[in-house]
Structures are given as structure tokens and as C-alpha cells.
């Protein structure tokens, strides 16, 4: 198991954005599900601030995979969340809960994450928060 990726997810579950940032390279490429690529820690921190306003999430059933001598990793997990504040272009928030399978893929160099790509089924999430 990749220790950097484990620290990253432990920090996520603790709500520790600074701890997550400490795992990233300065020029990290963050590939967001259904979104644009954000480059750099500052953009990643802005994304985290937005997410923390709109969502409260905890990841469970975590399995971390490592390949290519520690330069690549992946994780599969369940996102257990509460939709706190309406996110632009998405259904209205009123405290709905959701449970969503997801996965993340990583590139690593010198013990830092240089790329994070996360995937989940947005249509499934929309259905769950739309009470459908």
C-alpha cells in the first residue's frame, strides 16, 4: 500500500485540508470528475474549500493499490456524504445523504502526489439527492 496515498485519505477523512496538501507536489494536476483539470496546490485548496462548504463526506471500504515501484497508485472506496449547500448547476441541497462508489488514480514522484484523478457516477449521485 502506498503510504502517501494512505496519508492523503486519512487527512481527507479527518477534514484536514492542510494534511492533504502536504501529500501533494506543488504542481499537482487535479483531474476532477466531470470537470476541468486544476494545476497547483492553490487550486486544489480552493476546490477543497468549495467541497467542504457544499458536502460533508467520509470515505469507507477503502482499498489502495500500488504499481510501478510506487510511482502509480489507485484506490476504490465508498463515499458516505451529506449534501449541505446547493452546488451550482446541481439539485437543491437540503441535507440529503448519499452513498456512492468511487475511485481515485494517482501519479507519485519523490513521495508526493503529482496527479489525482477521481471518478464516480454523477447520475447515481443526482438520483440519490433528488430522492429518486
Describe it.
- It is a single chain.
- With 132 residues, the protein is an alpha+beta fold.
- The protein has a single domain (3-129), classed as Roll (Nuclear Transport Factor 2, Chain: A), CATH 3.10.450.
- It contains 4 helices and 6 strands; from the N terminus they run ααββαββββα.
- The protein has helices spanning 3-14, 17-22, 41-54, 122-129; strands at 24-31, 37-39, 55-67, 72-83, 97-109, 112-120.
- Strands 2-1-6-5-4-3 form a 6-stranded mixed beta sheet.
- Strand 1 (24-31) and strand 2 form a beta hairpin.
- The longest helix is centred in the middle third of the chain and has 14 residues, at 41-54.
- The protein starts with a helix and ends with a helix.
- The mean pLDDT is 95.
Describe this structure in a few short sentences.
This protein has about 130 residues and is of the alpha+beta class. About 30% of the residues lie in helices and about 45% in strands. It has a single domain (about 5-130), classed as Roll (Nuclear Transport Factor 2, Chain: A), CATH 3.10.450.
Index terms:
alpha+beta, Isopropylmalate/homocitrate/citramalate synthase, 6-stranded mixed β-sheet, NTF2-like_dom_sf, 132 residues, CHP02096, SnoaL-like, Nuclear Transport Factor 2, Chain: A
What is the CATH fold-level name? Answer: Nuclear Transport Factor 2, Chain: A
pLDDT under 50 segments (min length 5)?
none
**Succession of helices and strands:** HHEEHEEEEH
Strand order of the largest sheet: 2-1-6-5-4-3
Query: Could you tell me the radius of gyration in angstroms?
Result: 15 Å
Pfam families: SnoaL_2 (PF12680)
Organism: Ruegeria marisrubri
Domain SnoaL-like: 5-116
Protein name: Isopropylmalate/homocitrate/citramalate synthase
Amino acid at each position: 500500500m502506498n503510504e502517501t496515498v494512505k496519508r492523503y485519505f486519512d487527512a481527507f477523512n479527518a477534514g484536514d485540508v492542510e494534511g492533504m496538501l502536504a501529500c501533494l507536489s506543488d504542481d499537482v494536476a487535479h483531474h476532477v470528475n466531470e470537470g476541468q483539470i486544476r494545476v497547483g496546490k492553490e487550486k486544489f485548496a480552493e476546490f477543497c474549500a468549495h467541497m467542504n462548504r457544499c458536502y460533508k463526506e467520509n470515505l469507507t471500504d477503502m482499498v489502495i493499490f500500488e504499481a510501478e515501484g510506487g510511482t502509480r497508485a489507485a484506490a476504490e472506496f465508498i463515499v458516505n456524504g451529506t449534501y449541505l449547500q446547493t452546488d451550482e448547476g446541481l439539485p437543491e441541497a437540503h441535507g440529503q445523504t448519499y452513498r456512492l462508489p468511487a475511485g481515485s488514480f494517482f501519479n507519485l514522484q519523490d513521495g508526493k502526489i503529482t496527479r489525482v484523478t477521481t471518478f464516480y457516477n454523477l447520475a447515481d449521485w443526482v438520483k440519490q439527492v433528488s430522492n429518486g
